[in-house]
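Much of our argument rests on the idea that a fold can be written as discrete symbols. Part of our work consisted of pairing the sequence of a single chain with a tokenised description of its backbone. We regard such an encoding as a compact summary of how the chain folds. The amino acid sequence and the backbone structure tokens for this protein are reproduced below.
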Amino acid sequence: MRSGEALLVRGRVDDGEKGRVVLAEDIRLLEQALTESSGRPRNGGAAPEPNACRIRVAPGENASAALAIVRQLCEAHPDACRCSSISCWTPRKWSFGRAACPSTAVRSSSPRARRRSAPARSAWTMPDALDFEQPLVEIENRIAALQTDEQGPRTREEIAKLEERLARLRQKTYSSLTAWQRTQLARHPKRPHTRDYFKLLFEDFVELHGDRVFGDDAAVVAGLAQFEGQGVVVVGHQKGRDTREKIARNFGMPHPEGYRKALRLMHMAQKFHKPVITFVDTPGAYPGLGAEERGQAEAIARNLREMAGLRTPILAVVTGEGGSGGALAIGMGNRVLMLEYAIYSVISPEGCAAILWGDAARPPKPPSRCASQRPISSSSA
């Protein structure tokens, strides 16, 4: 649009990591918006006077403030605004109530009306529930639906029975998992990642970047922190949450510069007599052409040799998936711990299926057959 034209922007302000931005949902010329809104009759009333403009105001918004802004725009741009009068209106589907404008609608605040808008469900597992977790999710949704209704004695009794049944079913389900199901749990998208543990366990975390040779690798997060008053060096794999972060962090598969960055910080820990804590959660080292050209195997082998002789304590924790040498490159330590349902294997099930059967993308049989070859888990360690 040409500069100097009056615009009507509808949207919201979002405070993200990169600062405050305006997310515009609709941008139109002020003249066009006022022309389209003119001539709309009042609810149950007669047609408005000629050139009368009516502005649609969303329920719950401040109608007076919206009208004041539009009037200021009209005063600043008299050529674009030809309205003889300006008022506000709202759609008929909202219930009407008293507001700054007589015809401003207010959304119903009845709890019962809100309950009927969507079926109640257990939000924490529904989007990412695994196939064997579906019976658990169904019971959780039934409990959530009952909890949204008015709770009488019979309702509370039914909720108690369902919660008891849910506890028994959960115990039965997770005590008889197959190797492939444990692998799925280790990769669960809602499982805590390295940065989550950093926020929960440490204070004053300062991230350090770069290997001083090639560059920085976002798949490996490392830095300095305080743990119960003790200065420590922390290193870990980071997979990412959403699609953009997963791509930026290469799905937790490090390049050689990631392992060299980790080794650089371990040498720093040895120099200043600080213990090292590593968090392992990766399907393996990245096998791409660029990573191999920059010495992926050499970087892993060097880490194993240097960590074996490092003169400072190393605590390694397998938090999720520990795959092959990519995990071992920061997983060697004086103590190695594993969280529940974490796995530690010489190769990922998909990689094993690709080698043995030439097909890594045909679940569940080839990957599950490889997973059943007893990788190390928290229950077998």
